[in-house]
Amino acid sequence: MRIALAGTGRIGSAHARTLAAHPKVSSLVVADAEPRRAAALAARTGAEAVADVDALFAAEPSALVVTAATAAHAPLIARAARAGLPVFCEKPVAVDLPGTLAALAEVEAAGTLLQLGFQRRFDAGYAAARRAVRSGELGRLHTVRALSSDPAPPPPAYVPLSGGLFRDCLVHDFDMVRWVTGREVTEVYATGSDAGPAMFRDAGDVDTAAALLTLDDGCLVTATATRCNGAGYDVRMELAGEAGQLTVGLDARAPLTSAEPGGPPAPAEPWPGFLERFAPAYEAELDAFLAVARGELANPCDGREALAALRVAEACEVSRRERRPVRLAEVPGG
Question: 136: which of 18, 72, 112, 212 lies 20 to 30 Å off by Cα?
């Protein structure tokens, strides 16, 4: 397969390394808004660099991988749909809900393939939790706790373009709540704090957030996130049922220190970031995309799945701003 990759930043570079080494990829062609960056990545991976997106499409690829800036996602998805190309795109589909709905309409009208990059669906821990819940091993779930904590804030220029903490970060947790439990969110109540670095206040965003989600079977979910977790990168999910409990992400590198006498100390090497923590999952999702594009596998995360998680994030943002519970039925696209 000849694969085109648009966007050669941090995640694009990681994906390029995976694709360049994949036995099903015969050639890789890359482009970036900064051509020198694309050329440098091509030199490191053995890929071919082209000047721009037009040249990328002219290279006649078998499929497109989108790791460009968020604002470029929807136009690239739509262009690929019109060209009949399968697309893998890092989340989100677009910077807002109307843009997401428009891009998904293009894909559906063209009848093409779109797989979204919710890499936690390919993490061994989350997959094991899903099996435990679906098999009934935990009994009726009554409580779920999900968290995502970054070790340091992103660059200031990124914050106004990110979509906010609920859409950019917690959307992964919202996707996992749906994927692991098999239930839908019916109502949210969310809040946030901008007491940290001023760049979040300046962008109208928050650096720390919390949401209470009610699922359609009555299970209660708390989801929290922060940009300022200096102990390390911490992503976990706790599932409590009437018959048992299970935790995802509790391993030797989780940045936790027990306060109990004789409890485990802080890890010598806590997870520094998402690329390290989810490296196997990122590789697995691209392997799955190549199989999906070849018609060998069902799509594990299509655009409608991504939309469902985004609608929860949108509801949380409305709840935060308006300081009230928000029903998912209030959010368009359901």
Answer: 212
